[in-house]
Amino acid sequence: MIRRILRRAVRYGYTFLGQKQAFIYKLVPTLIGEMGEAFPELPAQKELIMKVMKEEEDSFLRTLENGIKLLSGVMEETKAAGKTEIAGDKAFTLFDTFGFPLDLTELISRRTVLAMQHRWKQATGWCLPKARASLWGMTIPNILATSSSIVK
């Protein structure tokens, strides 16, 4: 949950404040000044907290920059095709392959009068067997054959 809150703040700073570099971690000393007495672990772990927050911010800023570019391309394709809804599998690919959160895809697409299909859940049904198959060195046809023989 904390990561999600941090990412929302990073996205807000990126989109509305023009912050293209990590900055929220710099607020940790202020937080410690306000809350350090009530939570003594904050001052004790100040350096670690700042380091982890900065790394998370930097990582998410890269994800955000790439994801927004990719999402813009998907939105342009969708509009060019005369559709008003981003395909669920495209949204899921942004999430699964590039780490771009589905809630951000939905939020950004809504702001441009596009909806997002909620069929991305179907894509997760395909993705999980694929991931499990790679763990066991199996191919998708093998895993499908195995699962269909179990179901019978």
Care to describe what's here?
This protein is mostly helical and 152 residues long. It has one domain (2-118). 73% of the residues lie in helices and 3% in strands. The protein contains eight helices and two strands; from the N terminus they run ααααβααβαα. Strands 1-2 form a two-stranded parallel ribbon. Helix 4 (46-80) packs antiparallel against helix 5 (88-98). The longest helix is centred in the middle third of the chain and has 35 residues, at 46-80.
Instruction: Return the average pLDDT rounded to an integer.
Output: 81
Q: What gap, in angstroms, lies between the N and C termini?
A: 41 Å
Cα-atom Rg, whole angstroms? Answer: 20 Å
Low-confidence stretches: 138-152
> What spatial order of strands do you see in the largest sheet?
1-2
Task: Tell me the number of strands.
Answer: 2
* Quaternary: single chain
As a percent range, the share of helical residues equals over 70%
List the total number of helices.
8
Give me the strand/helix succession: HHHHEHHEHH
Category from helices, strands and their pairing:
mainly alpha
How many distinct domains? 1
- What coarse outline follows from CA principal-axis ratios? elongated
User: How much strand content do the residues show?
Assistant: under 5%
Give a quick account of the main beta sheet: strands, pairing sense, barrel closure: 2 strands, parallel
